[in-house]
Design goal:
The protein is of the alpha+beta class and 548 residues long. It has three domains: 216 residues, Immunoglobulin-like, CATH 2.60.40; 100 residues, Neutral Protease, domain 2; 212 residues, Neutral Protease Domain 2 (Neutral Protease, domain 2), CATH 1.10.390. The chain has 17 helices and 23 strands. The strands form five sheets. Strands 5-4-8-2-1-12-15-14 form an eight-stranded mixed β-sheet. It has a five-stranded mixed β-sheet with strand order 17-18-19-21-20, with helices on one face. The chain has a four-stranded antiparallel β-sheet with strand order 6-7-3-11, with no helix packed on it. A hairpin with a 3-residue loop joins strand 9 and strand 10. Helix 5 runs parallel beside helix 6, helix 6 packs across helix 7 and helix 12 crosses helix 13. It is globular and about 80 Å long. It binds zinc ion.
Length: 548
């Protein structure tokens, strides 16, 4: 079909969806659509409206084109990438119906808790209309009111079985004056030989991209932009605060540059930090393909809030490599219908937790004192809470789907974040000590990127072991046994590693943990090598970079 006609029909149909939502019927368009009975789109369309913002309900019309079977099945995800537990978003759907393009009801049967079968009756296009309750503010939820549309499409967008890889568009019927922050590009096409962008309409190459692209829209969004290696990074804020953009730009530029200098290239051509700042205490970030969604508070916390912002932002940015592209093979592709078990979350979250703060120190954003304080936090969380747990890290990774995000029973599980970060630290310092800093965990991450992330083929736990031992130049049976696959106590191994860089963890008789910097000149030299930047550019460039 010619572009012009397709676009014309797209515009008209967008208009119709608005009308349908408000229950007004316009006969002309009905006739028009009967005449153009064959499907005209090559993409799935999600039309999103909010008629009563205070009710927190979204109204979604999901249009499925090119239907050619007697039945189709539609699925709402049961979980979201970044949090490996079943969340059952379908419980937030209040009503649902399927209609033909001419408005006739089609039979729709629920066949699992979040899957429906529609009898298509020979229709080439099916619309599913439903409402979704969007009233939760965390980094993986959706929330709408008079002032804000905060959307995670994974919560409420369905896909059609067998067609998850087809392109999608999202039409947002936003209030006037709202700006949109989202990693998805604006939908555009050529009309009369003129490239035309469609207001408040976004495009995704497939369902995976759509649901990996959260969105903030409001009339009071604040933003700033900085550039590293010609890649624009955009920081968006919604909330009751006045950001110190100069300081933010300086510090974000530093850690972004350090990460890219370490990994040698960035996986995306643009990146968005989406921040929702609440009046109440909150700390939550979720990684996405070319963006991250961060929810922090309270908005009047000052320096504490700023340190949280730095810590979570550096962590989430490193996920742009580590899991978004360097993906455990069990998660490639995501199966949104059920648990996707994997044993390597200690690589996904452990290495990312370790690197999030390490990059801040190496980039000069954190001083030694701040960095040691962060290391001490992981140590306290692990040794004061779960030092005697019966599970290994690999088993706790597998069981994320069971109890990964709750306190759990005593002495059962370990944190893939905290113990994961500590074993990443042990490995990094071992590799550095053995090679006089010639090799490190940086080499492991780069090889994972080159062999698995860049080609996007997914790695197995054996691949990680192989790469680590290749960098080490030896078998590391002790490491896999003591740190990853059993519940051996970690304290001795950790202090052996820390001694190399002049740090020591002490456990007091009441179980409290403290990390100290030792007065040891030789170890201080090693510590400085461990924590030095990998960037070759002059420090003076720092202040100018973010002002472009
Ligand atoms: Zn993470």
């Amino acid at each position: 079909m010619k572009h012009e006609r397709r676009i014309l029909l797209f515009i008209i149909n967008s208009f119709i969806y608005t009308i349908v939502t408000s229950n007004v019927k316009i006969p002309f368009f009905g006739l028009f659509l009967v005449r153009s009975y064959t499907s005209v789109y090559s993409y799935m369309i999600y039309n999103i409206s909010v008629t009563d913002p205070e009710s927190h309900f979204l109204f979604i019309t999901y249009t499925i084109p090119n239907v050619d079977s007697e039945f189709i099945e539609i699925q709402l995800p049961a979980w979201r990438p970044g949090r490996y537990e079943i969340q059952n978003f379908a419980k937030n759907i209040q009503f649902i119906e399927a209609i033909s393009r001419s408005g006739d009801k089609l039979s729709l049967d629920k066949i699992t808790k979040d899957r429906w079968r529609i009898e298509t009756k020979g229709e080439s296009e099916v619309q599913v209309r439903y409402s979704y309750y969007a009233a939760i503010q965390n980094a993986g939820s959706s929330y709408v009111d008079n002032e804000l549309w905060y959307l995670n499409f994974i919560n409420f967008c369905m896909y059609t079985e067998g067609r998850i890889s087809e392109p999608c568009t999202v039409k947002l019927n936003l209030p006037n004056g709202f700006d949109v922050a989202c990693g998805l590009p604006v939908f555009w096409d050529v009309v009369d030989n003129i490239p035309t962008a469609y207001a408040n309409t976004l495009a995704a190459s497939d369902f995976y991209q759509l649901v990996d692209s959260p969105l903030l829209a409001s009339a009071t969004l604040q933003k700033c932009e900085y550039i590293v290696d010609e890649i624009p990074f955009i920081i968006w804020m919604h909330g009751n605060l006045k950001p110190n953009w100069e300081r933010i730009k300086r510090d974000f530029t530093r850690f972004s540059r350090e990460q890219i200098a370490t990994m040698k290239e960035f996986p995306e051509d643009r990146y968005h930090f989406l921040n929702l700042i609440l009046p109440t205490a909150f700390y939550h970030g979720v990684e996405h393909r070319n963006s991250t969604m961060i929810v922090l508070g309270p908005d009047d916390e000052g320096e504490g809030l700023y340190f949280d912002l730095l810590g979570v932002s550096s962590h989430e940015l490193f996920h742009a490599w580590n899991i978004i592209r360097i993906r455990p093979k069990e998660l490639l592709p995501y199966d949104f219908t059920k648990e996707n078990y994997f044993r390597t979350c200690f690589v996904v979250e452990g290495c990312t937790t370790y690197y999030g703060d390490l990059f801040l120190k190496r980039a000069g954003v954190f001083n030694l004192e701040s960095y040691v304080k962060e290391l001490q936090v992981y140590m306290k969380r692990h040794f004061e809470n779960s030092a005697n747990s019966s599970q290994s890290l690999a088993d706790s990774s597998f069981d994320l789907w069971l109890d990964g995000y709750e306190k759990g029973i005593p002495n059962r599980k370990v944190s893939v974040y905290h113990k994961g970060a500590l074993v990443a630290l042990i490995l990094d310092l071992y590799l550095r000590k053995k090679s006089s800093h010639q090799n490190s965990l940086d080499d492991v991450m780069r090889l994972l990127w080159l062999r698995f992330g860049k080609p996007f083929i997914g790695y197995a736990i054996e691949d990680y072991i192989y790469i680590v031992e290749e960098v080490a130049g030896e078998s590391l049976e002790w490491y896999w046994n003591d740190c990853i696959f059993t519940s051996e106590p970690l304290e001795t191994r950790l202090n052996e590693a820390l001694a190399f860089v002049g740090l020591q963890m002490t456990t007091f008789s009441n179980g409290n943990i403290q990390l100290n910097v030792l007065d040891d000149f030789r170890a201080q030299i090693q510590r400085e090598k461990w924590l030095e930047t990998v960037q070759e550019i002059a420090e003076e460039d720092d202040d100018d970079e973010g002002k472009e």
